[in-house]
Every structure is written in structure tokens, then in C-alpha cells.
Amino acid sequence: MSTLPVSGLPPSLIVSSRDFARLEALLDTPVLRRHPAALALMDELNRAEVRAPEDMPGDVVTMHSRVECRDELSGEIHRLTLVYPNEAEVEKGRVSVLAPVGSALLGLSVGQSIDWNAPGGRALRLRVTGIDYQPEASGDLHR
After folding, report:
1. Which burial class, exposed, middle or buried, applies to 96 when counting CB atoms under 10 A from its CB (0-12, 13-18, 19+)?
2. What pLDDT is attached to residue 122?
3. pLDDT at 104
4. What are the entry keywords (predicted)?
5. 94 within a domain of the structure (yes/no)
6. Range of the domain at 27
């Protein structure tokens, strides 16, 4: 799996302090402490710029954001909501932050792309094309 953007450099990412604290606590649980997906997410969080929820730009993917992504290789449009693992329902577009595409989307801004291999090895190049709902931009700072 690759989460590198088209340029080959990791995209800059911004995470709210609330999401950072909740994710850090989740990743520190005994069940997840050594899980490969949790380790990959921790790597992403360690390079993130952390901001107060009220200082989050409205075009950044945060937890519980509803986003629209376009697969630049196939043209397919995907509408996803980024959620915690216990809230995931793939058939409803609710993608866990511990899924490879979930951890890759966290903190990206509209216009940024990631390369990702879907289950089965199919290559995707997902570009965030819009954010239909972001809790911080909607004033839901304490979700």
C-alpha cells in the first residue's frame, strides 16, 4: 500500500487536537498497540500539524467528515465518511480510520491526492474533490 501523492512526497496533513488525542488513545490500547494498521496511522499522526478544532480549515478531512473523492485512474466517484473502527460500515460508505484508505485520507485537504491499493491489489489514485460535512466547520467541536 502506498499513501504517497502523485508527486512522490507525502502530502502535508493537518489534524485537530481533539482527533489527535482520541486517535492516540485508541492506538495505545493493548489490542491495537502492535497492529500494522495502527502503526501506520501513528506514523501519519506523528508527521501531522495539530491544530485546535476551532482553527481547522474547512477543506481538511477530519474524523466524521463526509468527503467526495474521485479515482483519477477510473473516474469513479466515492463518497466516504471517515469514522472510528467501531463505527465502520463499508456498505454505507463509513470507512474506518484504521483502513488503509481511511488513514490515508485523514488530514488531507481538498485537491490533494493519494495513491492507494484497494483490496485485491487494484490501484487507485484518490483526489479529495469536496467535503460535504466537516464537524469543525459546522461548529460541532465537541463530538
Report:
1. buried
2. 75
3. 83
4. Kinase, Transferase
5. yes
6. 14-133
